[in-house]
TrEMBL record:
<dbReference type="Pfam" id="PF01638">
    <property type="entry name" value="HxlR"/>
</dbReference>
<feature type="domain" description="HTH hxlR-type">
    <location>
        <begin position="13"/>
        <end position="116"/>
    </location>
</feature>
<dbReference type="InterPro" id="IPR036390">
    <property type="entry name" value="WH_DNA-bd_sf"/>
</dbReference>
<keyword id="KW-0238">DNA-binding</keyword>
<dbReference type="GO" id="GO:0003677">
    <property type="term" value="F:DNA binding"/>
</dbReference>
<dbReference type="InterPro" id="IPR036388">
    <property type="entry name" value="WH-like_DNA-bd_sf"/>
</dbReference>
<keyword id="KW-0804">Transcription</keyword>
<dbReference type="InterPro" id="IPR002577">
    <property type="entry name" value="HTH_HxlR"/>
</dbReference>
<protein>
    <submittedName>
        <fullName>Transcriptional regulator, HxlR family</fullName>
    </submittedName>
</protein>
<keyword id="KW-0805">Transcription regulation</keyword>
Length: 123
């Protein structure tokens, strides 16, 4: 416990909890943030996304892209070529996750090191 730190009241805690639940509801699953990160780097076709985000099946990718489009994180642009070209790109709203992704990346790196250290101690 940290001394002299003002603890949030019950109402503030409940509000924070609701906010976290809402965020996790929209970004649930192991693929959504990876897909957003992939598309923030550059616009891509379906197959390009599937190659870059290894391990995701076509069925899951299609569902996740629909969910991200519904929540305004990406746009699906259809071009009337033969055959039809579909390009996915991140929206400006995706940029609002930049600090979240950065923090998760930093934490993930710390956690990976912690796991490595724990494994060394066990050997």
């Amino acid at each position: 416990m940290i001394r002299n730190e003002v603890l949030p009241n019950r109402q503030e805690c409940a509000g924070s909890l609701r906010n976290v639940i809402d965020a996790l509801y929209v970004l649930n699953g192991k693929w959504k943030l990876a897909l957003i990160l992939s598309l923030v780097q550059s616009s891509k076709r379906f197959n390009e996304i599937q190659k870059e985000v290894s391990g995701i099946s076509a069925k899951v990718l299609a569902k996740e892209l629909k969910d991200l489009e519904l929540n305004d994180f990406i746009t699906r642009n259809v071009y009337p070529t033969t055959p039809v070209s579909i390009i996915y790109e991140a929206t400006g709203y995706s940029q609002t996750l930049k600090s979240v992704i950065g923090e998760l990346s930093a934490w993930g790196g710390q956690h990976r090191e912690k796991v490595k250290q724990s494994m060394r101690k066990q050997s």
